[in-house]
Amino acid sequence: MRNFKLKYVVLLSALLLVGCDRIKQHSTDSSPFEYREVYLPVLASGEHVPLSLNSIDRDWGIWGHNLSVVLPEKPSSSVYAKCENCVNRDQFCFTSDALFDYIKKYICRNYRSDKPMRFAILPNDNSVVCQCKRCVECGNTKLDASGAVYYMLERLTKLFPQHLFFTSYYKTTCSLPSRPLPDNAGVLVSAICFPLSTDCTPEEGEFMHLLKQWSEYTSRIYVWDYINNFDDYFTPFPVFSIFQHRLRLYAQAGVKGVFMNGSGADYSTFYRLKIHILSLLLSNPEAEWRPLLREFCRERYPVTGEAICDFVIKQEDMVSSVKTPLALYEGISTAVKTYLPAEEFIKFHNDLLYLLPETKGREHKSIEKISRATSLTHLELKRMAADTVGCEQMLNELIRLSDLDIIAYSEAGETIENYVNDYRYMLRHARETWGKNLLKGVRLEPLTELDEDYNDISILTDGLLGLPSCYHCGQMLSSATPSLRIAIPRVEGMKHLRVNMTKNPIFHISFPSRVMLTANGHEIGAVVPASSSSHLQRAVAEFEIPANCKGKLVLHVYRDLEDRTMALDEIEGF
Question: What is the 3-state secondary structure (H, E, C) of 313-367?
């Protein structure tokens, strides 16, 4: 038995060394980037973790817009911004001596002097800028905090020459410095305005020019880029062709670090696959990623790998052929136009469900999550097509993700539970109104201009309510001022009109301030919408149509001007 154990240990050690060697041949020190991070869920112990990747948890003392971590429980009010002689606790004063001291104490207390760390000295993610005398003398304007941030940055670089300190080029820090940054300072440049495309765009030239400008002030430029649709973490989002193109550009521009902002700790479909391939491209932007993808899928998913690889490549091919930039905040209708081949996806999803019983161990756990998560994509495609067949079964699969501690499906924290509840409410309403709604399928006529991305008025009579928790599909958003006007065709036997609305404060979508119905220019009635007792994010405006009513029916929906948009999800006639 002892000899067997010894042989087992030797064999296991050899296999581990082989595994390490295989990783190393894909992960070299010849990368053009000193900092490389793919911000997706942490791989479990025992999985092949790419050796080349950095981590905000391991390599940064302060990351992102999190400067508040340095503050004690009751900080001096002098650390906060002063605007119009008032203290604004939503933002910092970067010339504050108290703030400088808090940062200094935080670094000295938590980080050894012999281990270099990175620190992001960034304003909070809003438009507030301190207007105190010292900040204004440093160059602050009402819209730009760059001057005061550079002042704080220089103080910290002198005090801690062994550490690296970063400002950002984003929102209120979008001015170049008046002189080169210290050697131990750098900049995080957001690529939010650089569209995700495999093709050269006008914005690409502008972004590359910006990087060239920054190269005159620092040799340490890090790009903060984006690899997810942040409204939907579950629909597969193809990024390999796009990021090979971008990483080549970044390398040519002398960029020293790339932070790929994904779903963070939240589950995202294909996150393991993304971490693996993107890490290889970060190590070598010229790498042929397609054979590496097939190799990874074959090893990681023995039963389902071919189906996964084939679908991912179909998505990548679609992105390259359509040549429309991918959006970071969009719904299923945009995905279908740019990166989601609907028929191929449905076949792929069904194939996963068919193959799932044949999988074992690690593959089974992964495919179980992928198949359930992509049920949301399938459900959204069905909602887009006004098809309710089989939806209940998919909802049952989707909700089971919560048993695996997968709770949210978007950056805003929209939960699977809310999505499932809203979807079931929609299905129940469709059953209750089946054969009764006289306006189902009837074409309405917009009398005011519709919003560019929400100009399909047919969804207001498709027989399905929208989902407040997933607003892109099934409802029509409008920013019309002062009102959206819609002509309602007269249908034989229609005596009652019902207008359904939703709100979502997270996205500044509110109920209309007033809904009015007119006939031939004369008011029939007006309603101020309020949340229903059964669903706080829904409201209904109802109108009785008098028997002697003549002329054209027109619905006037007045927007609450304090919010950006309002949402109608169904207009029904009975």
Answer: HHHHHHHHHHCCCECCCCCHHHHHHHCCCHHHHHHHHHHHHHHHHHCCHHHHHHH
Q: What are phi and psi of 468, to 5 degrees?
A: -55, -35
Per the listing, tokens 């409410």 go with 425
- Residues 31, 52: contact at Cβ < 8 Å? yes
Query: Would you give the distance in Å from CA 186 to the centre of its chain?
Result: 26
Euclidean distance between CA atoms 164 and 183, whole angstroms: 9
Helices 342-355, 361-384: crossing angle, 10 deg rounding: 140
For residue 1, what pLDDT is reported?
A: 35
Instruction: Give the model's pLDDT for residue 18.
Output: 34
**Residue 383: left (phi > 0), alpha (psi -120 to 50), or beta?**
alpha
Distance CA 532, CA 286 (A): 57
Contact at 8 Å (CB) between 227 and 238? no
Return the DSSP state at 389.
Answer: T
Q: What is the pLDDT of residue 29?
A: 62
Output DSSP code: residue 500.
Answer: E
Whole-prediction pTM: 0.90
96 phi/psi in degrees, rounded to 5: -70, 125
Please count the residues of the chain. 574
Closest CA to 90 of 136, 128, 121: 128
Contact indicator for 318, 197 with CB cutoff of 8 Å = no
Eight-class DSSP state of 406: -
Longest dimension (CA), the chain: 99
- pLDDT on residue 387: 95
Q: What are residue 497's DSSP bridge partners?
A: 543, 573
SS3 89: strand
Cβ distance 171 to 144 under 8 Å? Answer: no
- In angstroms, rounded to a whole number, what is the distance separating the alpha carbons of residues 45 and 74? 39
Pairwise CA distance, residues 420 & 120, whole Å: 38
User: In this structure, which amino acid lies at residue 507?
Assistant: F
Low-confidence ranges of the chain (pLDDT < 50): 1-28
**C-alpha closest to that of 65 among 147, 122, 150:** 122
Contact 450, 478 (CB under 8 A): yes
Q: Tokens for 424, please give them.
A: 């079931």
Give the domains, in start order, of the chain with CATH numbers. 28-275 (3.20.20), 314-428 (no CATH), 436-573 (2.60.120.1190)
Residues 263/41, Cβ–Cβ less than 8 Å:
yes
- The string of pLDDT tens digits covering residues 320-355 is 999 999 999 999 999 999 999 999 999 999 999 999
